[in-house]
Design a protein that fits this description.
The chain is 27% helix and 26% strand. It contains nine helices and 16 strands. Strands 7, 8, 9, 10, 11, 12, 13, 14 and 15 form a nine-stranded mixed sheet that branches. The radius of gyration is 20 Å and the shape is globular. The protein binds 3-[O-phosphonopyridoxyl]--amino-benzoic acid (PXG).
Length: 311
């Protein structure tokens, strides 16, 4: 839309602020965190009507940025939300936000909302989509999870039906995942295994899941109700390059309990070993050999696959 497209994504204005305050990109401007606010009439807030991406930068490299831009564009296309910035303009805005905050390693949240409208579902009420980019330091899982593996639990909330709110879309509707997260936390677990409505393994609240069985890497097909994770795809590509057979396969909890190895993948988690599910020990109860190899290959990949910037 003209408001954004005809103006450079570079900041037109910077509100004076204390030097240490985080700067947020908000609709073409950079504003301090304390002033980064959107309207209560934004349909992103009123209805969860919008799309987003969670991205990471490693040592001044925005990891898999192109892939994240494609997923954002595809999510937006499906919900008929016209992105006001091109992938190139968004990339420029992301890099500029990172630079302004002097962040080498960051968590990047790109959000596009339907925009401000009136109190009705109809997106036609919203004339201009809202865009904001938050770059911040990353909250990591404890180091011990990577060394010793983590435990997860299956929760009662089933993953959204692909025929209803398709989990392939990264939209601002995350209550399905949040309900599952609450259930996991109520039982003192940090991550939850979510099944689909047929009882097949779908994914976790913010991570995809893999198992290793008899030397083969297996992950549920996304049509069963999972996001096409960028990390998931990176692991599948690494498996191919390392001559490790990898297949998408319908999996039950029984398959998971009897796997040789299990791990989760996600932008925040990277590759994290799982050693217990619903109280059942997985394999030898320690991070497996193939998992450790993939963790190391993935770490290497984060040093080279993305868009570079300088501070
Ligand atoms: N499934 C779901 C439901 C997700 O939300 C993944 C899988 C993994 O996808 P990627 O593309 O990241 O490999 C996600 C991603 C957060 C946060 O702040 C969540 C995600 C990514 C980054 C941050 O909780 N979820």
């Amino acid at each position: 839309m003209a408001v954004h497209r005809n103006s450079s994504s570079k900041a037109k204005k910077t509100t004076p602020t204390s030097p240490s305050e985080l700067q947020v990109y908000l609709n073409g401007e950079f504003v301090p965190k304390s002033e980064a606010k959107i309207s209560v009439f934004d349909h992103g807030l009123l209805y969860g009507d919008g799309v987003f991406e969670g991205i990471r930068s490693y040592n001044c490299l925005v990891f898999k940025l192109k892939e994240h831009m494609v997923r954002l564009q595809e999510s937006a296309h499906t919900i008929m939300l016209e992105l006001p910035l091109s992938a190139e303009e968004l990339t420029e805005a992301i890099v500029e936000t990172l630079k302004r905050n002097k962040l080498r390693d960051a968590y990047i949240r790109v959000v596009v909302t339907r925009g401000v409208g009136d109190l009705g579902l109809d997106p036609a009420n919203c004339k201009t989509p809202g865009v904001f980019i938050i770059t911040d330091t990353i909250i990591l899982y404890p180091e011990s999870y990577y060394r010793n593996g983590m435990e997860i639990i299956t929760v009662p909330t089933v993953r959204n039906l692909p025929e209803a709110v398709n989990p392939a879309l990264k939209t601002l509707n995350y209550l399905n995942n949040i309900m599952a997260k609450i259930e996991a936390k109520n039982s003192n677990y940090r991550e939850a295994l979510m099944l689909n409505h047929q009882g097949y393994v779908a994914e976790c609240t913010g991570d995809n899941i893999f198992i290793v069985k008899n030397g083969i890497l297996l992950t549920p097909p996304t049509y069963l109700g999972a996001l096409r994770g960028i990390t998931r795809q990176a692991i599948m590509d690494l498996a191919l390059r390392n001559d490790l057979p990898c297949q998408e396969r319908v999996l039950t909890r029984h398959d998971l309990y009897n796997a040789d190895e299990t791990f989760l993948t996600g932008t925040a988690a990277e590759v994290i070993p799982v050693v217990k599910i619903d109280g059942r020990k997985i394999g030898i109860g320690k991070p497996g050999k193939i998992t450790r190899k993939l963790m190391s290959s993935f770490r290497d990949l984060t040093k080279r696959d993305g868009v570079r910037y300088t501070l």
